[in-house]
Amino acid sequence: METIIGIKGKDFVMLAADSTHPHSIMVLKDDENKIHKISDSLLIAAIGDAGDTVQFVEYISKNILLYKMRNGYELSPKSAAYFTRKNLADYLRTRYAYQVWLLVAGYDKKEGPQLTFIDYLSNTLSVKHGAHGYGGMFCGSIFDKYHHDNLTQEEAYEIMRKCAREIQKRLIISQPKFHVQIVDANGVKRLEDITTENLKD
């Protein structure tokens, strides 16, 4: 009952995530932040079991920070994604498997923007756009129609708005607000939330 969306542009990656915290048939919170800043050039959006997402993302975040302290440099976004994937796969083979779905977004000075799709079975793929959750089912056709390799930040934000509008229109579960963040050569920046109210503009 949650949604995260990612889009890679020519020099950035943009992530959006709904802000609801559902449990069974109830909404417990409406201001949940599902996009986590791991470093100045890395973001992870996560959904799934509430305890698993918090614990797993914190575990990955602290280990990436530890790597930087030991080696004097950060993992690249691609390396961070595969480090995340390996840990998720290792736990999958124990009694303590994490039920998390992830989008790993980052910017590397040499390789440029990176967006990696990871599911709870540790399937990993570098993508130009992707989504997890029920809301993601309504985004595929929008990505196909509007995404292109030279996408600007304004165009990407408008695609996010189109996805949010379609989700709010067609999904039976209410997701009235989406947090949006971007990572590029200048670091991480939070953009204006996409809400039911500003989608009317």
Report what the structure shows.
The chain has helices at residues 50-71, 77-92, 140-146, 153-170, and strands spanning 3-8, 12-18, 21-23, 26-29, 35-39, 42-48, 100-108, 112-118, 124-126, 129-133, 177-184, 187-195. It has four helices and twelve strands. The protein is 31% helix and 36% strand. The strands form three sheets. Strands 10-1-2-11-12 form a five-stranded antiparallel sheet, with helices on one face. A five-stranded antiparallel sheet has the order 5-6-7-8-9, with helices on one face. It has a two-stranded antiparallel sheet with strand order 3-4. With 201 residues, it is α+β, with helices and mostly antiparallel strands. It starts with a strand and ends in a 6-residue tail after the last strand.
Keywords:
alpha+beta, five-stranded antiparallel beta sheet, 12 strands, 31% helix, 201 residues, globular, 4 helices
> Mean pLDDT score, rounded?
93
Helix content: 25-40%
Range of strand content: 35-45%
- Strand arrangement within the widest β-sheet reads 10-1-2-11-12
Radius of gyration: 16 Å
* End-to-end C-alpha gap: 26 Å
Based on DSSP secondary structure assignment, what is the total number of beta strands? 12
SSE ordering: EEEEEEHHEEEEHHEE
Envelope shape: globular
Q: How many H/I helical runs?
A: 4
Helix-and-strand structural type = alpha+beta
Main sheet record: 5 strands, antiparallel
Low-confidence runs (pLDDT<50, min 5 residues)?
Answer: none
